[in-house]
Amino acid sequence: MNSLNSEAFVLFGQHILWSDMIGNLFGLAALALGWRRSIWTWPVQFLAGLILFGAFFGHLTGSAGKQAVVMLVALYGWWQWQRGKGQTEDGHISVRFATWRERGAMVAAAAAGTVAVALLFKAYPTLSWDPWPDAYIFVGTIVAMYAQARGMVEFWFAWLLVDLVGVPLNFANGYAFSGFVYVIYGALVLWGMRDWWLRSRENARPVLEGAPA
């Protein structure tokens, strides 16, 4: 994996690693496919996690562990979307807003998870270079992917909150390409949020009796 962690090029004084670039390009493609509600978002997300796991393993154990969890959630998302396929006229997953109970559960899980993971990172300093923001991104990513797997519009809000911390953290720790990609994520998140928001309203609209489906 040393070749994956070698320098690809220098951009604006930032050293871009092959692993950082390739893994995050796949991650960016996965987000774009998620916007289109394509089930292929999950295999691509799994592949992105696999590349980044290989790059981090033996070097940044905590980051490698994060990618392992991302791959597991990607498998869960694939299973969920396979079950929900065909719920709409275009054959893609149906999207909706979460209930207030689901929102409360996700916020509580994110808060408790962030504290638990941060304390783990602090207890084992080799797992993370910056325990609290790293834990926030780790747990926020999992919550966002879970919401995506369930077809919830809140998925995009969760990604936006992850971006707000992910961009400066990646630049500060030398993962410049990740930082640039998170900026692009932000634009995709806003477009995807609008698209899913409108689709959720269409899905919630009642069909009048006698009207075409």
Automatic annotation (TrEMBL):
InterPro entries: NMN_transpt_PnuC (IPR006419)
Keyword Transmembrane: yes
Keyword 4Fe-4S: no
Coiled coil (residue ranges): none
Transmembrane segments: 12-34, 46-79, 104-124, 136-162, 174-193
Keywords attached to this entry: Cell membrane, Membrane, Transmembrane, Transmembrane helix, Transport
Topology in membrane: Multi-pass membrane protein
Location in the cell: Cell membrane
Family per record: Belongs to the nicotinamide ribonucleoside (NR) uptake permease (TC 4.B.1) family.
Protein name, UniProt field: Nicotinamide mononucleotide transporter family protein
Organism this protein belongs to: Streptomyces lanatus
